[in-house]
Amino acid sequence: MYLSSKTGFKIPSVGLGTWQAPKGEVCSAVKAAIDVGYRHIDCAAAYGNEDEVGDAIAAKLSEGAVCREDLFVTSKLWNTYHRPDLVKVACKKSLENLKLSYLDLYLIHWPMAYVEDREFFPKDENGKFIFSEVDYLDTWKAMEQLVDEGLAKAVGVSNFNSEQLGRILANCRIPPACLQIESSPYFVNGRLIDFAQRAGITVVAYSPLGSPKRPWAKPGDPQLLDEPLLKAIGAKYGKSPAQVVLRFQLERNVGVVPKSVKPERMKENLDVLDFSLTKEEVEQIAAFNKDYRAVLLEWVAHHKYYPFKEPF
Ligand SMILES: NC(=O)c1ccc[n+]([C@@H]2O[C@H](COP(=O)([O-])OP(=O)(O)OC[C@H]3O[C@@H](n4cnc5c(N)ncnc54)[C@H](OP(=O)(O)O)[C@@H]3O)[C@@H](O)[C@H]2O)c1
């Protein structure tokens, strides 16, 4: 199943997340994902594993399991490459690692730029992040050029708020095709999703299962997949809580990129296209909302383009 927009942009509604898919495992995980039917792989330079993801894609292409046109590969521009002259450099590096000649979608990972030409997480001697002044509008112009040059079929943004997205829309030549943002029943993110969809932008939800293994999770944090109501709704359809929360997003016309390195779970997460939730069930699930972000990055909240200070 694809999500599509009036602009002709099309993206498979369920993709495989690769953040924290460990080196040494991610290659076999991506091969298994393609074998069980995934056609959309969500990658990023910052995940540090694009080289292995690329090995898996290359292996599957060369054995004829899929052809390039069947696959939808997303990558993301990291914060240390926002300076316009570095955008193409970063894109080409991801392409080299992924062993591809073009990306289906290239996203600006975050609106905040960090100082260039250093490590991915540049910090001073006190452990404070070192920022860059680059305006994401200038970065966007360089993203548009990637489309002109055929290096990316489509470009978009991730973790932008409505004000930042509006600023791009008002100043762009090519509007963002896609917005990738956090959304799960604990962080429904409805106003931003409505804003983007009304502007014709396709929305993909990251951390759709609540990101239970995020590195900063604390003992006592709420566990989405343990919610009894999700289990009860799932039982009605013979589905798991994970399948219910993924289907919840599809009912809102929002794509999902759940991460797993386990073939059984990958299959489970893809097997969400043969049932529907009722309007009442969607509302009940949305009522879980706690405005609880799994990915907050509060340590860079003083950046002038930090996106999560606005209401949405
Ligand atoms: N744009 C951004 O800034 C951004 C930020 C965060 C995430 N993302 C993208 O979104 C993807 C997904 O987000 P996420 O990795 O934070 O979290 P998630 O997909 O919400 O949750 C992944 C976790 O759930 C487990 N899991 C997977 N399927 C399951 C199932 N059916 N039942 C029970 N547990 C299951 C996985 O473990 P196993 O692997 O052991 O199965 C993993 O620990 C990322 O991998 C990345 O591609 C993007």
Describe this structure in words.
- The strands form 2 sheets. This protein has an 8-stranded parallel sheet with strand order 3-4-5-6-7-8-9-10. The chain has a two-stranded antiparallel sheet with strand order 1-2.
- Helix 2 packs across helix 3 (84-98).
- It is globular and about 55 Å long.
- The longest helix is centred in the first third of the chain and has 15 residues, at 84-98.
- It is built from 10 helices and 10 strands.
- With 312 residues, it is α/β, with parallel strands linked by helices.
- The protein has one domain: NADP-dependent oxidoreductase domain (TIM Barrel, Alpha-Beta Barrel).
- The relative contact order is 0.14.
- Helices cover 35% and strands 12% of the residues.
- Bound molecules: NADP nicotinamide-adenine-dinucleotide phosphate (NAP).
- Residues 17-20, 42, 109, 158-159, 180, 206-214, 225, 240, 242, 257-262, 265, 268-269, 295 line the site of NADP nicotinamide-adenine-dinucleotide phosphate (NAP).
Q: What is the number of beta strands?
A: 10
Number of H- or I-type helical stretches: 10
Order of strands, main sheet, comes to 3-4-5-6-7-8-9-10
Quickly count the domains: 1
Overall helicity? 25-40%
The CATH homologous superfamily name equals NADP-dependent oxidoreductase domain
Low-confidence stretches: none
List the quaternary state of the chains: single chain
Determine the CATH topology: TIM Barrel
* Secondary-structure class: alpha/beta
Main sheet makeup: 8 strands, parallel
How far is the N terminus from the C terminus? 28 Å
What small molecules does the structure contain? NADP nicotinamide-adenine-dinucleotide phosphate
Order of helices and strands: EEEHEHEHEHEHEHEHHEHH
CATH C-level: Alpha Beta
Organism: Macrostomum lignano
GO molecular function: oxidoreductase activity
Binding site for substrate: 109
Family: Belongs to the aldo/keto reductase family.
